[in-house]
Amino acid sequence: MTAISSVVQGQESAFPKAEYDARVARARDGLVAAGLDAMVVTGPENIFYLTGQQTPGYYTFQALVLPVEGDPVFIVRQLEYFNFVANTFITDAAIYQDTDEPVRFLVAQLEAKGLRAKRVGIDKRGWFLPITTYEALLAALGTVHDAAGVVERLRMVKSPLEVEKLVRAATYVDAGMRAGLAAMRVGNTENDLVAAMMGAAIAAGSEYMGMEPLVSSGPRSGVPHGTWKRRELTPGDAAFIEMAAVHDRYHAALMRSAWIGTPPVEAVEMMKVCQEALAVSLDAIKPGVACEVPHIACQKVIDAAGYTDNFRKRLGYSVGISFAPDWGEGGILSLNAGVKTELAPGMAFHLPPALRIYGRFTVGVSETIVVTETGCQVLGTLDRAMHQVAA
Which runs of consecutive H residues, i.e. helices, occur in 91-149? Predict the structure, then answer.
């Protein structure tokens, strides 16, 4: 490894160099199959997958220029350069200053590599490809081809080293959820729950999450994707808690439900349906089965119980590499009706069946799993029962 100042190339890399070399080789195969000469990779998740580069500074322009032939070059802001050195094994960096216009800088690099007149694609589905950036690149090159899916298809199936990261992340989320449930008592606030959850997960080893925990109580819990807002827990409250934790950017997530006092019969019945729906979904996950199959199994349980209108969503979504604003890889693969992609060993998903009466309460339960040769491995260890606390 080459030392630059006191920063050593790849010193903080999440994986060995051989792992990235194999990923780049497969990505190049994908470019050839798509009829492309090169790809400009802009999504932070795809960049991390191919290079190991990770930074909270992905709000500024960064890009990997990956040609089918020749060395890749990384376009990086000066402030991020030593971060890039520490995280990657790539030796060719093109460093721009804050006074530079990044797209013009990128185009100059393409020209220097003889790629400007070639078939260049870009991963158009990324979070951080502003329209202005795309239009500027289009104006400079004349044509920018669609390379969306080239890297994402590779990310669908996790390597054994990636699965190890997910398993570690699941231990952190278990710690966070246990702490959140332990903090569930009258007089505590939603903020107290989240403080306990985040503190325990981080103490266990988690890095910063791609999305904040979803924690709400009482009538607030009946609003999807609500989260903490200083509300104090009172007798008779439902509490909905969901969070992810992270190991080397690999996320595992978990959802559980709680009640202060005795839950109403309706909530108990809905929770039983969620638990049954999750169980049959897990049983349906096997290699070679279409992604829609576990969703359909879940939906049948919910429909038979009469809660169709209380469940209007997909069963689950893939998990793995994530940066804010999401903890999932739902744009890559979903467990949903109409998704015919076959499950394969190494695919990883979060399955969160939840039922809600809007404006009153939500109940739900989830697991993060990895598809195996015979079924699936559940990564979490928490009891799936509703957590009940004395009022």
Answer: 102-112, 131-141
